Amino acid sequence: MLKREVGFIGGGRATRIILGGLKKAGTMPRRVVVSDRENGVLTQLKREHPEIVTALNDNRQPASSRDMLFISIHPPAFKSVADEITPLLNPATVVISLMATVPIADLSEALNGFQRIARMVPNAPSIINAGYNPVAFSKGMIETERRELLDLLGVLGDCPVVAEEKLEAYAIVTAMGPTYLWFQLYELEKLALSFGMTRQEVERGVAAMARGAVKTMHESGLSADEVMDLVPVKPIGDGEESIINLYRSKLEALHKKMKG
Predict the structure, then answer these.
(1) Using CA atoms, how far apart are residues 98 and 90, in angstroms rounded to an integer?
(2) Is residue 229 part of a domain?
(3) What are the distances in angstroms from CA 52 to CA 26, 29, 73, 210?
(4) What are the tens digits of pLDDT across the range 147-167?
(5) Bridge partners of 7?
(6) Which of 89, 218, 221, 224 sits a CA distance of 20 to 30 A from 44?
(7) 49 CB contacts (<8 Å, ≥6 apart)?
(8) How many domains does the chain have?
(9) DSSP class of 142
(10) Global pTM?
């Protein structure tokens, strides 16, 4: 990716995560242009990545990028942005939408029939090259172009190709998934420190526990009930039903809303 020109319309969290992952992998493109409406957002990105070009309220600069254009804005704003950037798109550019709920067909229509489009659901651990970023492609992208894009984005972590109609489910499960766990793991670490464990012991122990718990789910050959019965003491077992109900009520409603 080193020789490429890449643009980002929208400099928020997803852009920060992707740039962080590219930089950590040593694969920052030759030229990166990021536009945003908020000067503070661009200032933070420039502080973390002095080599990038920032464009306040000017989507024309990233839209003119020769190779890849990431669009990371709120979906309601896309139509006006599309009108602004369509005349500037290079026919050889690949447009990668990070927006949830906007289908490829709608993206193409808004971009006056532009066909080189992919949608990706970004995952926060991509910032350390450990992400899980499902991708769906337009029919207008040929196999060699798809492979090239997957190779370029592969430094961020896994990039499985999935059916477009499943992207909203992935957004809830993989993109938002860390938020369901992080607050619990951070609290567990705080408690472990208060119990007298050192910071190193806490970090190694919690990380190993989390990795092992997931591997046991998927590699033990045991049923869910059998896995959960491996540990006889369940200190917060009386709260499990409430947590399960919270998952179901919140996430089912969110998925229904995203699917429209």
Answers:
(1) 19
(2) yes
(3) 14, 9, 19, 36
(4) 989 988 999 999 999 999 999
(5) 33, 69
(6) 89
(7) 19, 23, 28, 32
(8) 2
(9) -
(10) 0.93
